[in-house]
Amino acid sequence: VRHVVSELRSRGVVQADQPVFGIGWSLGGCIMSNTVLEQDELEVEAPSPALSRIDAAAALGAPYDLHASSQELVPWPNRLYSERMGQGLLAILKRVAHNFDGVRHNFLGEENFRFDPEKTYAAKSILDFDEALTAPFFGFKSAREYYDYSSPGRRFTERSPSVPMVLVSAMDDPVVGKEGIPFAAARKNENLLVVATSNGGHLGWCEGLARGCGFGSDGESSWTEDVVLDFLGNALEHNNDTNCSTNQASEL
Questions:
Q1: Which of 37, 130, 159, 248 would be 155's cystine partner, CB 3.0–4.6 Å?
Q2: 107-122 per-position pLDDT tens digit
């Protein structure tokens, strides 16, 4: 994500004085959360280049404890989601699997990777797929180790994120569950807002037969769009006010 933002700025698609806001749904929300939290962690080691910085973000229906989410998909009928998504991953893989021919190094450059088509194509769930391919390719010993490393929930603190971020989750989500939602951090961090609804399933905040589930129709916005855009609109206003104050101080 940081590479894409930096590339867009370097090409002039996004101007230097334009703030960048990120929105992620489901696993994309997990990625967006990690991106925003990592930029704070990297800031401690070395200042993050302004070119790649996310200025505000939103995550909707995201998993915050990937292991707990994987267990949420084990019992019936939730496992239907996992089986269906697992089939989708295999369908995508089959089109690009030839790229693994002769590959012996994992993503980290370690020479200990071997694509196992028999094990991978036998996967019946997302967990099976991650155990067979995702984890070993990215240098993890198991899917559990990969899940623990990639879960953003524990990384939210009273200081991070340091930029405005809103998380929207449904407590009855059958795909990602509710474990790891950072309620405690949100109570202490003024930049973090957690919106938790009793119902909504996985990205299914429906408002009625004439309204979409999480998206607008016929020119009308949906509830989730209203919540997120209102939050980001306020973040933009705050960002502009801060920049004006900084510029005025510089002139003095």
A1: 37
A2: 999 998 999 999 999 9
